[in-house]
Amino acid sequence: MTQTREEFEARLRQIGAERYHDKHPFHDMLHGGRCSPDQVRAWVINRYYYQHSIPMKDAAFMSRVEDPELRRMWRSRIEDHDGTETNPGGIKRWLKLAEAVGLNPDYVASTEGVLPATKFAVDAYVRFVRDKTLLEAVAASLTELFAPKIHAQRIEGLLQNYDFADDSSLSYFRNRLKEAPKDVAFGLAWVLDHATTQEKQDAAAKALEFKTDVLWAQLDALYSAYVAPARVPPGAWVAGEGMALARAS
């Protein structure tokens, strides 16, 4: 049975309440100051792979959109990450964080040392957005509904617990608190407008669940490789590699 607009929005929000990655034990460690410096570095390296893939995901989406209005609204997402003449963008802000935790930004940007499971999860998300319906692609982005809470927790936890944390190193998260609301307001309204049958509502809900799985899988990979028991796969980052130039000399 097709849900009302209000019922369907509540269904989408319940997915975040149950499945969003703020509930993963790695985030408890990170925000609570229980991560070692190398565990923080591993998180920065692997999360970068997701950050740098977001504009490619959005470009793949836009390449299939025939509606100029939808393209125009979606274009700002690429600019938010890649930057403009007046905005350095989320990718450069993330590399500032990498430098702050003692990593060489060039090493991080190379994506060498990224866990295989991280690559599989993120690449699967890019393919999903490229190949699925536009409704499913937009619905998958709605994890942004739940992101402001985790960004606020992260800013507070990192500032309280880690010496590297300051306004410069955490600028990515502060900026997302301003950027994400406009994206999610448009995306949510678009999904609610277009999920007009039970079949479409079910597909959109499954797409959002898929995206929560993508985010959760990345943290599972980190936890397995760098927490307990630590099992770093061949080719992935190991402590001491890719450090900042000043520390490597």
In brief, what are we looking at here?
The chain contains twelve helices and no strands.
Instruction: Please work out how many helical segments DSSP would assign.
Output: 12
Poorly predicted runs of 5 or more residues: none
Count of structural domains = 1
* Percent of residues in helices: over 70%
**Number of DSSP E strands:** 0
Keywords: Oxidoreductase, PQQ biosynthesis
GO molecular function: pyrroloquinoline-quinone synthase activity
GO biological process, one term: pyrroloquinoline quinone biosynthetic process
Pfam families: TENA_THI-4
Question: What this model shows, in words?
Answer:
The chain is 70% helix and 0% strand. It is mainly alpha-helical. The chain has helices at residues 5-19, 25-31, 37-62, 68-82, 90-100, 105-110, 116-131, 134-140, 147-161, 171-194, 198-226, 245-248. The chain has a single domain (5-236), classed as Up-down Bundle (Heme Oxygenase, Chain A), CATH 1.20.910.10. InterPro entries: Haem_Oase-like_multi-hlx, PqqC, PqqC-like, Thiaminase-2/PQQC.
Descriptive tags:
mainly alpha, 70% helix, 12 helices, 0% strand, 249 residues, Pyrroloquinoline-quinone synthase, Heme Oxygenase, Chain A, PqqC-like, globular
Helix-strand layout with pairing:
Layout: H1 5-19, H2 25-31, H3 37-62, H4 68-82, H5 90-100, H6 105-110, H7 116-131, H8 134-140, H9 147-161, H10 171-194, H11 198-226, H12 245-248
Helix pairs in contact: 1-11, 3-4, 3-5, 3-7, 3-11, 5-10, 7-8, 7-11, 8-11, 9-10
